Amino acid sequence: MQPLSPNLSRANRAFTMIEIALSIAVVAFALVAIIGVLPTGMTVQKDNREDTIISQEGRYWMQAIKSGALGLEDITNYVESITVSNITKPTLSYTINNGPTGKALTPTDVIALLSTPKYDYDIKGNALTNRVTARVKAITGPAAEKGPLTNEFSFRYELQSEIVPSGPLMLVTSNLTGRYFYDMARRKNLHEVRLILRWPLMQRGNDWIVGSNRRTFRGTVAGTYVSATNLNSVLALTNLVVLIPNKFEVISNNIVHARF
Prior knowledge:
This protein is an alpha+beta fold. The chain contains 3 helices and 10 strands; from the N terminus they run H-E-E-H-E-E-E-H-E-E-E-E-E. The strands form 2 sheets. Strands 1, 2, 3, 4, 5, 6, 7 and 8 form an 8-stranded antiparallel beta sheet that branches. The N and C termini lie far apart (115 Å).
């Protein structure tokens, strides 16, 4: 019997078990690395998508409040509830749910509720502090998430609205000088708007939990408040107002003379 010749032809050659084992080890090492990076990549993609949506939503709501809800007919499809919490007098706080299980809000109702001044006064002249928050389903984003308000897969966030006058909150009425009327005109006709968006908003049982992400948008509205009371009979509220841009009050002797 002749021994096997080490010089085999190319057709008779093959990989040894050691070579196969090394190849499998290299491929397995690469797959483990790729699988380990995938969750991080998906998280980064999700965060970037949410950041983009929040940037668009913040600018959209800022313009909606500045315009007094003019020409915005579809925002009621995305606002699920609005809560006005009175920090000074908690008994004055209330929540309005929108949709099939709540009230049928109009666009003006939504903007009027979001335009509730942060600082206000009751009928007795006592100072009040309001905190306005809304549960909102994203207006922008994939079309698959644009369903009824009960869509459980939609991206949601919490919208907090703060509107304060540009002028001083407290004025000395005993000294009716030009400075007094200037500050009064600023209070009536120039307002600072701050919108705080927090996300993601997730439901846990009957409660809603908001994440740690937050972004703030600021703007200024040159205009005055106009009463929005009785625009919709489903809201039994008498203090609703909206900001109307480029509409001003002229004040002298502590009396409002005209709006234009």
